[in-house]
Amino acid sequence: MVNVHVPEIHLSQAQFQPEPDSPKGKKVAEPLVVSVSAERTFLLSRGNSAFADRLFAWLMLLCGLSIFAIVALIAFELVLRSQLTLHKFGLAFFYEAFTDPDTHLQMFWDPVNEQFSARPFIYGTLVSSFLALLMAVPLAVGLAVFLTEMCPRMLRGPLAFLTELLAAIPSVIYGLWAVFVLVPLMREHVNPFLIKVLGWTTLFNDENPTGLGYLTAGVILAIMILPIISSLTREVMTTVPHSQREAVLALGATRWEMIRMGVLRNARIGIVGAVILGLGRALGETMAVAMVIGATPEIHRSILSNGSSMATVIANEYAEAVSEMHLSALTEIGLALFVVTIIVNALAQVLIWAVTRGTPAQAH
Amino acid sequence: MRALTDGTVTGLAILATLIVVAPLIAIFVYLIYMGASSLNLDFFTQIPKPVGESGGGMANAIVGSAILLALASLIGVPIGIGAGIFLAEFGRGSKLANGIRFTADVLNGVPSIVMGLAAYALIVSEQKHFSAFAGGIALGFMMIPTVCRTSEEMLLMVPNVIREAALGLGVPNWRSVLSITVKTASPGIITGCMLAFARVAGETAPLIFTALGNQFWSTSLNEPIAALPLQIYVYALSPYDDWHRLAWAGSLVLIVLIVLAVSLVRFVASRGVLKGAS
Q1: Which of A138, A144, A297, B173 could form a disulfide with A234 if both were Cys (CB 3.0 to 4.6 A apart)?
Q2: Looking at the partner chain, which of A68, A164, A338 has a beta carbon nearest the beta carbon of B262?
Q3: Interface of A with B in 190-219 (CB under 8 A)
Q4: Which domains does chain A have, with CATH numbers?
Q5: pLDDT value, residue A2
Q6: Domains annotated on chain B, with CATH
Q7: Residue whose C-alpha is closest to residue A352's, from A282, A278, A269
Q8: B59 or A42, which is more confident?
């Protein structure tokens, strides 16, 4: 019991004596210290702390390993809970369609007759994410170029802060805003315009006048993934050494040529990584999309139609699903989402690391 | 010609910036306008009224969110900081540490709804009922990677001289880490925790089928519990104007909380993380 306190007493004394006096002399003068020799207390404290040190190191290691454990746990539980559909449908779960016994129409998702196929959800996820990237990537790169290369120093801080805030707004608030502002806007103005101008491509038709649908989901997703792509692009672009820029400028290049040849070319792998990371976010985004995509398990050619995505079908149906089959089908979609996002994120990390590796971690 | 291209691109970059800033300002202005006009004292003191009666508030959701977040922090903060300490102090440069760092980054990108599924499988389907506990676990797991990575970054900024000074005085390593290194980096670590906290405070997806939501007072960990983001979601999709107003007010409260946290993080980061303590 006494041993536990020894190192502390020892420590406080050691701190009070920065002078070159020999510590032994002082200790003899102090009557409070236990009468054993200073060497003995020192050795005791060593032995004591060796054990404590090892324990501490193990504890921290355990915390570190818990991150592996969480990933393993998620994978294990998801596989376990999707056994039913994994066995019944196999891989066909992800692409097969079937016909409804009563109406003889093509069906994908029928909880009543326990027929499930993830095809419309995969389609919805891909279409909305693709639309989001299409809108977000040019804007994000443009913003990053503006912030790193052109922006007056005075504006840089506030603008970077604003985009950071954009990343911090919860998904459900984006959804709320989309429901009350974006959806009416799409319904009244954007969609009619697109149908009138681009209706001939058959990608836009007026079957769905609600303003919900793939395109609206794509727009809100684009707003949500913009800050991630832009801030990572910025980070990658700032790691390009100044000598590169100066060299290109010295050859008589204009600013744009300098950005194109000196900066973007050197940073392109990292930018691709940032885009892929944004894709990962878009694939898994749930609440905002669930509120505007329309939630129907169908496949439409028109991007103004209602649809559903992998994440949103889980959010919409999981709490109400009763049959084991239905739960299992939803869990399997979750498993697919988990695997895909892991792969996408891992890829993005590798690409970003490839560029920022040589620079210190505090780049952002 | 080249000058023209240059000018065009500059114009395009400025345009892109404007297009990005526009929705942000639109969201904020609309949110503050709608939220402020529906926010009142009742919001913080009353529980939701039945459909058809006007008024009511979200007191139960605010308390519910506080309970869920406390539970999440209890799980996420110690484990996250521990993992950060391991990465920065023990495993520097080792293969294992790199693996953990990589996994943490990847785990950060796993959709929150998948976390919800895992918590459902782990707890709800074993207990056969929805509970606040399951929601707290899901949120806690989501906090770990963020807390871990920010703690690590902050600890790495502590100069080695400080560690060596402590060890040179004969301080055991564990004490040196806890009362010297971590203490020095504590402002940064705390802001990292707040960032993670702000992130999960707005999470809805993992709560839908774990905490489920509740229209009445409930503070029991073993029962479904209301949460602010969940309530906003339900109210936003309802057909009642009164509920829409409550949703806006709830969003404003949530966003104020989050903006405060983010600004604090930025403030601390900009003044140099280590000034406060050392």
Answers
A1: A144
A2: A164
A3: none
A4: 2-81 (no CATH), 83-363 (1.10.3720.10)
A5: 38
A6: 42-47+56-270 (1.10.3720.10)
A7: A269
A8: B59
